[in-house]
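>> received
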Amino acid sequence: MAPIALEGEDHTRDAAFNKILHGKSAEQKAGFRAMLKKDPVAQKAAIDEYFKHWDNKLASNETAEEREVNLAPILLVSYYNLVTDLYEYGWGASFHFCRFAYVEGFYQAIARHEHYLAHMMGLRDGMKVLDVGCGVGGPAREIAKFSGANIVGLNNNDYQIERAQRYAAKEGLTHQLGFTKGDFMVASIPESKKSKTTDSLKQMSFPPNIFDAVYAIEATVHAPSLEGAYSEIFRVLKPGGVFGVYEWLMTDQYDNENPHHREIRLGIEQGDGISNM
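>> returned
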């Protein structure tokens, strides 16, 4: 399979827009308060940027060629610029699903889900671990406290990184947690878009074979190519290291020729910032 063509990262652009849209709202205590602190003009721009990718895209007339067209990384940045505060307000700091035991509390179930992953991966004190698509750092904080591992959170959204850093400092975990901006895809960048900052084929800024373990919790579904995402994870993982993942996937029963199946899939993609599930 040919590499998916990705737009190169532009940290300067993202940081400038983050400052305008979010201002100092990353310092707010709760998601609802942060929602009230946005720049309205920049917020409308973020909404327009996100929904332009879906204009006139209907399940009934979708073609195979359209499914293969990669939506630029700005799609995901725009999505989380819009929904992060709402997620925190209604869901908490761990943006993932989990199983519930009878009469088990929500946050207890979320934590158990994260503990189980760390346990099955054998994470322990002193290991260097990568969290791929770390959100605002809820799972990273929980797993760091549970396992004693040192965790680096990778995220392509500046606002979420600011929130994650704030929470880590508040919980006294800055010695165990770090957060860095980056994409988890291998990039095949068109010649017309190459520059001094986008001429690498690697979107992760880590050297090879550096992490003892890597995990991803409902994050790599956002990648336009799982092969690209997992190839990059394999590159940074030490030989013999462990990769643990919870992920959204369609079963073999999905039939792209079935209009109802396509309608369900496209609705999930549009509602969750997924370029191609």
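>> Residues 1-6, 187-201 have pLDDT under 50 and may be disordered.
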